[in-house]
Specification:
Beta-lactamase; seven-stranded antiparallel β-sheet; 30% strand; globular; 510 residues
Amino acid sequence: MRIVIRMNKAMPVFACLVLSAVIPFPKGFDLMIYAAGSDRFEKARAFIQEKIKKEGLPSISIAVARDGKIIWEESWGLANIEKRIPATPRTMYSLASATKPITATAVMILAERGLVDLDAPASRYLGDGQLTGYQPLAATVRRLLQHTAGLPMHWNLIGGDEAFPRPAMDETIRRYGFLAAPPGEAFAYSNLGYGVLERIIERVSGRSYKDFVEREVFAPLGMDRSAVLPGPGREAGVALAYGARQEPFPPFDFDHRGASAAFCSAHDLARFAMFHLQNSLPGQKKILSAKAIRSMQSEKDPQVPASIYSLGWSSFVNSKIHFVSHSGGMLGVGARLTLLPEKDSACVVLANGAPTMEGTELWDVEWEILKAIVPGFPESPEIPPPPAAPAAFIPPDSLVGIWQGNVHANNADLPVQLTIENTGQVRLELDGQENVALAVPTPLGSLGFSDDILLAPFLAGLKTPDTARSPHILLLKLKLRGDKLDGVASAIAMNQRFCYPHRIELARQK
């Protein structure tokens, strides 16, 4: 743990040094002394403190690295409000989706050992749970890493306050592992894709995902305050997750641990970042070649030129700076992990408060920190203008009409009819009930048609054992392919704990 002493005019450096000599700090503690107003992080520190106050966040922890050294790590607030446990740079936080670069690292380890061919069909390495739908043989391991395999949106947060059991990964793949679009057609962010990678790691290595990641990634990189779903005995060192009113969320498990289940301290995540910047750190083993590290940061699906996603990382340029990054967000969690490869710099920002699945926005904190460590760093990022307010939905003639088919849910085909009027009204008949699409904007998107894709939210639901966990709405995302509409009917929980995708296929009625 780091103890910080901030000097002022009445507290000379000599006095601080005396304090450090006479106070018996416990083993494992170190002391950092700096003069208020004199260090380059003062502005960023003030920004973070104001953000915590303004947004009511329980805590934020950061770690910053440059040229192979951690040059700043600090924490503010409480990791556990009820027990008044302060956050430290060694406190473990849920990473949510910032788990994905860790899973990608594990896959690349297996690839370099010759145990996984990135260009082989993912199904080669799967067992009872096989991918189905469009062109399964084209859904390669590499495309799973790049989110271009065609898998739909999916998330599943299984709370410790629920009696709902976590399904086996093979069962989740059987239920939801369908390719809703041809592989290589488009980028579609998929937690389930990283759940499939988790299962590949297990089947190829013969070990659990947790064991493989902790022993083959965390241990050799010296990440001793990191784990996949920390078990009993480590609770005191883990930041609890809180909502908007600082109400605690239960601990969550997932049916896509490879997408969401890692916990790391800010200090450890900075060590992970420095490894991916190819810094040689004392005590770290070289678990990947330089070639593999470079490919992870740059190799995108050539069939999807608009995608910024490579092998486990987003890789993009903003304000003429090359970012290699991943964020994480869910109920009670905010995380950012960013590398600037050309600047040999990295920034980690972790928070344990957020009211929604999007998590807490931490890009602003990261930018303030990077301004302090990179000479000439832009004052503010290039931010595209906000999208125009959606216009009233006026469907093209190619959409107007009656479309009939089935939703595949719970191993059964449920008859469905979609009626699209030239006035813009869209009606869904399912399970003996008719619902009208919401015409007002929703957090899930608005009723509309763009790039041959129809998006339509409904206050409707599907009756399956999984969706019975919570009231939910239904979001249709359908691709127009001649006289057919096909895609996904997603059941999204009102409490935001799940998004279960279901295959839907419709044909125009003459």
